[in-house]
Here is the input.
Amino acid sequence: MNFLDQFILFLVSLVANTFSAFSGGGAGLIQFPVLIFLGLSFSVALATHKVASVALGVGAVLRYLKTSRLERQFVILMLLTGLPGVVLGGNIILLIPDRMAEIALGILTGGLGIYSILKPQLGQNYEPVHRDWIGCVSGGMILFLIGFLNGSLTSGTGLFVTLWLVGWFGMDYQRAVAYTLIMVGLFWNGAGAITLGLLGDIRWDWLPALLLGSLLGGYLGSHLAIKHGNRWIKRAFEIVTLFISAKLIYG
Here is the structure.
């Protein structure tokens, strides 16, 4: 790969991950299709994208460490429920066709954006709910399912986590995005990258540009999210979900 191709990959990764870090997910909307367009097969592009996405979590951690403290309860919950789903999804995706799943995911993702639009006050204030044992188990079951989608598909699953943390646990958007970027970006995507790397192939020579773009985009997007607050994050979330929905449905 020549310098121009590496530069294109860097720009694509920077833009995709900046939007993802600001809105709470969706880097795969831009980055993953570009990898396929540049000549990678679906499985190789998926594994390469997953590895690069880990840098998004690292960039977010570097920014959020200054302002945010994650609650141990949710860190443990997201690790125990999400990681098994990611590994299971990563094992299955390479065995089945993905088109029908992408259409279904696109419809559901669009529904998330429409739901947020119809709820003007959603995620604008921190109002903790469902923090008892039953609430955490119920919420964890959905996180497992989202983890499965994260391991098997590429676009929008971080947005699912963001909205679930807002809708079920009563987080505001800014707090939910912090959990999504750090836990999903770093740990879930890390598990997915390892799983897909063991089962398939990774294009290592493409990774320097992708990793740098993801790292810088994660930091920049997190900075914008912290600076502009819940209302701007909500609008970005809604725009990204609708774009991802259209992309998944119409290819």
User: Anything to note?
Assistant: The mean pLDDT is 84. The two ends are 26 Å apart (CA to CA). The CA atoms of residues 216 and 244 lie 22 Å apart. DSSP finds nine helices and no strands in the chain.
